[in-house]
Structure formats: structure tokens, C-alpha cells
């Protein structure tokens, strides 16, 4: 599925075998993603899902920080 930064669904396909309504029903969600170029997609998916554990690399975290305009520590 493809979601915009605000979490709105743009396009959905079953390439991972689960739709967003299916994911919402799963009690324990673990999302793994990496790369600065994926930052917007990561934000969108987590906003749409609104639960779970997110595992990312430093580049994804930096990209998300920039998109969300969060100052560095």
C-alpha cells in the first residue's frame, strides 16, 4: 500500500498480502524500514496504522526528523 505523509491511502495492492484493514486487526505489528528516501512513506504508514513497533535505521530517522521539522538533539 502507498500512503501519503498524513496517512491517507493513495494506492493499495496486495503485494505484501495484507490490506490496511487487515493490519489494524493484528494485535502486534512490527514495521521495519530503512533509508532516508522512505521517510515520507514510513510516516504515512505509521499514521495510518497508529500502533505497533517501528524499527528504522539512522538515515530513515534523519529523513523523518526533517520532514516532521523536529530539531536535532
Short description:
This protein has 73 residues and is an alpha+beta fold.
Share of residues in strands: 15-25%
Helix run count: 3
Query: Unreliable segments (pLDDT under 50, ≥5 consecutive)?
Result: none
- Extended strand count: 4
Oligomer: single chain
> What is the terminal-to-terminal distance?
32 Å
What topology, given as strand order, has the largest sheet? 1-2
Fraction of residues in H or I helices: 25-40%
Look at the helices and sheets and give the structural class. alpha+beta
| SSE topology string | EEHEHEH
Q: Major beta sheet, specifics?
A: 2 strands, antiparallel
Shape: globular
Report the C-alpha radius of gyration, rounded: 12 Å
Mean pLDDT: 87
Structure description:
The protein has 73 residues and is of the alpha+beta class. The chain is built from 3 helices and 4 strands; from the N terminus they run E-E-H-E-H-E-H. The chain has helices at residues 20-25, 39-49, 58-67; strands spanning 2-3, 9-11, 30-33, 53-56. The strands form 2 sheets. The protein has a two-stranded antiparallel ribbon. Helix 2 crosses helix 3 (58-67). The relative contact order is 0.22.
Topology, please?
Elements: E1 2-3, E2 9-11, H1 20-25, E3 30-33, H2 39-49, E4 53-56, H3 58-67
Parallel strand pairs: 3-4
Antiparallel strand pairs: 1-2
Helix pairs in contact: 2-3
Amino acid at each position: 500500500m502507498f500512503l501519503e505523509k498524513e496517512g491517507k491511502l493513495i494506492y493499495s495492492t496486495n503485494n505484501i498480502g495484507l490490506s490496511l484493514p487487515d493490519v489494524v486487526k493484528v494485535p502486534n505489528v512490527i514495521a521495519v524500514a530503512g533509508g532516508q528516501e522512505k521517510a515520507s512513506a514510513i510516516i504515512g504508514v505509521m499514521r495510518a496504522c497508529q500502533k505497533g513497533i517501528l524499527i528504522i535505521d539512522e538515515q530513515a530517522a534523519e529523513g523523518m526528523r526533517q520532514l516532521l521539522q523536529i530539531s536535532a538533539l
